[in-house]
Each structure stands twice: as C-alpha cells, then as structure tokens.
What does this fold into?
Amino acid sequence: MAVRAVRGAVQLERDEAGHMDEQVGALLTAVLERNDLTADDLISIWFTATPDLHSDFPAAAARKLGFADVPLICAQELDIEGAMPRVVRVLAHIESDRPRADIAHVYLGAAAALRKDIAQ
It folds into this structure.
C-alpha cells in the first residue's frame, strides 16, 4: 500500500463554529467518498485556515466525524494581500493503492478557483 496525499479546500460564507464544522465536514466527507476511502485509510491531516477565521479549529470538525485516532494539526495560512478570504485547506496523507494520477483532489464551491488544474 502506497502513501498518497490528497488536497482540498472550502471557502466559508461566515466565520461561525457551526458553519465551519458543516463545511469542513462536507469537505472531508467528499475527500473520502471521491477517493473510495475510510477513516482507517487516513494517516494524518494538516489543516490551514486563512487569518480571518477565528471561530474554531478546523480539526474539530474531523473529530466530530469520528476521526478520533487520526493525527490532526491546524496552522494559519499566509496572510497574502488579495488572497481568497475565509478558506480552510486540507492536506490528507492516506494509504491507497490508487496511482497518484487517480487521486481526486476536492475543492468545494468558490474554492475550486484556487486550483483549477487539480480540482475535480
């Protein structure tokens, strides 16, 4: 089984904990579904959030989905002028037999504009 990385992002409409849980949960669920994964296939997940998000840790949504034994970490995205606001990004390390070219990276809603080259 190979180690692969899956990218993804979602733009929040507002900085509220419940909304973050909902949107990050949808992102993680889509990453699992589109790559035919279960929580047991996850090695670790890095989350970043833009500096304008303060309501909660994105990793809290993963815990609420039941990722109890998956190592998670959150960091702040660089504060770049003109960058898309209210964005949570993920970099999930997984175990998968899929070739790297077949990994489905998930960019939901307006965040699809961030990586048109790999968004599916």
